[in-house]
Design brief:
- By secondary structure, the protein is an alpha+beta fold.
- The protein has a domain of 40 residues.
- The protein has 3 helices and 3 strands, in the order E-H-E-H-E-H.
- The protein has a 3-stranded antiparallel beta sheet with strand order 1-3-2, covered by helices on one side.
- It is globular and about 30 Å long.
- The two termini are 14 Å apart.
Amino acid sequence: MIELVRTNDPVVISFTEALLRDAGIAFLVADQNMSIMEGSLGILPRRVLVEEEALERARQLLQDAGISDEIRK
């Protein structure tokens, strides 16, 4: 799987999840449980991963939704 988004912003993560889910793109949100180690401060970013075959489609989806600045290069 390839990293699509890395952010500390739970709203961006939630929005990205909804977009990908609605588009039928399989994804994984990594590092969700790291808050236990960091003390729930939101310091450590979460990552949204997609399959390599869906990467360009997912990037276009985020760009169309206006959050292209969140896409990892």
